[in-house]
Backbone:
């Protein structure tokens, strides 16, 4: 069996370590995600799923345990390398979109290309390609405040995809959307998964959305209490 | 990437126009005051220089001056002594000086006004020309930058031989000789007090109205007087004054000569010659030294204003630092998003340093524009003040008002430096943020 995209062993995350108010959020998570999997992580608020996502996304560091991303030990990486990993290997989709307010949709999609270590040629064409993939090419010159929530999230997905990452990490991507647009966004994830074989990790508290994925990992109080196959579509 | 950074910086500065403008105010004031003062100072300096150069370049004025009493008590009985033949500076003395310091002095410019007169055509009462007859040294035409149009200039031989030759103005040649070649023609000047002077025309010089003062246009052109140049010694003989020396003359300095050194050398030379003269000695004066004094004053003012400008740049810079800190706090989330998308710490730092530099540079450019505008205006005013102070010489004054390129470049440089210096701390603070904290910042 080939090396999984994500391999976590006994991941522990503690806040205020060594202080009286020390708080352990994750109590030793073991998790592997193989290439091409569409996994959802579900759990109540405070179950630690966001903390886990931050560690998977190399936004935060674990207190203990090891995390291999594509076989590389993330814990050993310098800040520079971690930046490059976020830039090239991970595509983020946030609940609140996190688009740059002063930049057009196109510019927003181009941001990861701009921060790329290697000089990416034809940045505009590449970004336009991503926008048309999510059906937003006609809104390329619009700023975020001129777009609806669903459109913003589509731009954000285009931005997540622009550097062809190993995994897409979506943190409650439909949380700020009504259920109809939420389903539309989910359709895009399913398409990316089915057509391009992307590895997708979806964090949600919606059992309904989780049921659409291949695998459902349930977190409770910082521990994985259930890891089952999902229904898929 | 750098271009993108600059574009983003400009966008974020323009997103907060009022705030940015207020932030830039200190820099605008500092830079514009430096530009204003350097423009005025530079304009005064170059106006004086251009004017002096047009008046014959760098010269040393030499006077025969009485030895004033050293004791105050002697002043009451002292009278200015009469000048005798031996008190005048002779051509031989001057030649000796030029021979001794050929790399400093190129010649002597001296003139002696003989009188005004009329050249009358005996055949036609209505055909005449008014002239003002001046005795000059051979170098004088060169010194006045008057070119020879036809024939030749006056020579040392003309001078030594007290020859009856003259050089006339081209305007006079045109209307009096009416197209005929004036060279070799004899002219008779009837002076205002009845003397008749005969000269042979040997040359024609190009008349320069600016040099000889205003033209009275109410007089018909043929009645206007032009300068006729004759050898200096000839003028002395014709005036009945047999002296062969000067009580005042200008020494022409070589283009590269050091005026101060030349002044010392000339003074020493004449001090030695006049050591035995109880009544008189030679006093040297150089316009360049006056210029240097004015320059010194202007430089002192410039340095003082620059000091004030430096303080205002520092205050402005602190303002920039403050606003950058505010901006970074406001944009913490944006910083977090950028880091999540792969921006390295140094990329974030660069972005905010560039924003501070652009902010300061825009302030600097606005300051330069204001400074150039006001400076040019005040430079003109200063020019007019000079003109009205020296109304008699107003036609000689050549106004040159322009901003100093050095000051502009330095201003841009210091604006940038302010941006780097005061932008670095906030930018570094931004780059030190933890991505997860920045991303979660509310």
Residues:
């Amino acid at each position: 069996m080939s090396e999984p995209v994500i391999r976590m062993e006994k991941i522990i995350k503690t806040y205020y370590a060594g202080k009286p108010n020390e708080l352990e959020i994750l109590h030793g998570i073991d998790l592997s995600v193989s290439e091409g999997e569409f996994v959802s992580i579900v759990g109540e608020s405070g179950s630690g799923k966001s903390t886990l996502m931050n560690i998977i996304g190399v936004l935060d560091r674990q207190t203990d345990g090891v995390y291999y991303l594509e076989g590389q030990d993330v814990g050993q990486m310098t800040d520079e390398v971690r930046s490059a990993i976020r830039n090239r290997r991970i595509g983020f989709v946030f609940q609140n979109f996190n688009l740059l307010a002063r930049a057009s949709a196109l510019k927003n999609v181009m941001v990861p290309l701009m921060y790329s270590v290697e000089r990416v040629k034809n940045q505009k064409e590449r970004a336009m390609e991503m926008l048309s993939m999510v059906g937003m090419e006609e809104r390329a010159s619009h700023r975020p405040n001129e777009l609806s929530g669903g459109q913003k999230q589509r731009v954000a997905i285009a931005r997540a995809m622009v550097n062809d990452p190993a995994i897409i990490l979506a943190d409650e991507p439909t949380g700020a959307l009504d259920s109809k647009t939420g389903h539309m966004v989910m359709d895009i994830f399913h398409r990316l998964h089915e057509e391009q074989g992307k590895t997708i990790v979806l964090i949600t508290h919606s059992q309904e959305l989780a049921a659409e994925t291949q695998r459902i990992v349930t977190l409770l109080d910082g521990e994985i209490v259930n890891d089952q196959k999902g229904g898929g579509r | 990437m750098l271009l993108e950074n600059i574009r983003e910086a400009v966008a974020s500065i323009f997103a907060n126009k009022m705030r940015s403008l207020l932030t830039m105010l200190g820099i605008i004031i500092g830079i514009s005051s430096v530009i204003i003062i350097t423009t005025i100072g530079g304009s005064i300096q170059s106006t004086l220089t251009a004017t002096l150069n047009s008046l014959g370049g760098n010269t040393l004025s030499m006077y025969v001056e009485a030895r004033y009493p050293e004791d105050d008590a002697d002043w009451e009985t002292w009278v200015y002594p009469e000048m005798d033949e031996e008190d005048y500076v002779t051509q031989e003395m001057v030649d000796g000086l030029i021979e001794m310091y050929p790399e400093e002095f190129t010649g002597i410019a001296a003139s002696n006004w003989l009188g005004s007169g009329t050249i009358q055509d005996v055949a036609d009462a209505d055909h005449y020309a008014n002239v003002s007859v001046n005795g000059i040294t051979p170098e004088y035409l060169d010194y006045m930058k008057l070119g020879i149009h036809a024939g030749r200039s006056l020579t040392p031989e003309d001078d030594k031989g007290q020859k009856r030759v003259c050089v006339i103005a081209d305007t006079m040649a045109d209307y009096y000789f009416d197209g005929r070649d004036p060279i070799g023609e004899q002219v008779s000047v009837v002076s205002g007090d009845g003397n008749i002077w005969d000269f042979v025309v040997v040359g024609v010089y190009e008349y320069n109205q600016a040099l000889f003062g205003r033209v009275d246009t109410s007089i018909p052109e043929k009645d206007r007087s032009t300068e006729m140049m004759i050898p200096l010694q000839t003028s002395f003989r014709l005036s009945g004054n047999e002296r062969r020396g000067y009580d005042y003359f200008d020494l022409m300095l070589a283009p590269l000569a050091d005026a101060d050194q030349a002044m010392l050398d000339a003074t020493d030379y004449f001090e030695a010659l006049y050591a035995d003269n109880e009544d008189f000695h030679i006093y040297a004066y150089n316009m360049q030294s006056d210029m240097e004094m004015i320059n010194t004053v202007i430089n002192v003012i410039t340095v003082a204003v620059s000091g004030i400008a430096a303080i205002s740049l520092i205050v402005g810079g602190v303002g920039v630092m403050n606003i950058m800190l505010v901006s970074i706090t406001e944009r913490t989330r944006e910083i977090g998003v950028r880091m999540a998308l792969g921006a390295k710490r140094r990329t974030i730092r660069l972005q905010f340093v560039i924003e501070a530099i652009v902010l300061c540079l825009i302030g600097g450019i606005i300051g330069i524009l204001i400074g150039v505008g006001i400076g040019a205006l005040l430079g003109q005013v200063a020019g007019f003040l000079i003109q009205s102070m020296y109304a008699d010489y107003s036609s000689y004054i050549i106004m040159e008002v322009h901003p100093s390129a050095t000051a502009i470049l330095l201003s841009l440089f210091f604006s940038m430096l302010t941006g780097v210096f005061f932008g670095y701390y906030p930018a570094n603070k931004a780059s030190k943020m933890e991505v997860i904290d920045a991303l979660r910042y509310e």
The mean pLDDT of chain A is 91. Residues 110 and 123 of chain A are 7 Å apart (CA to CA).
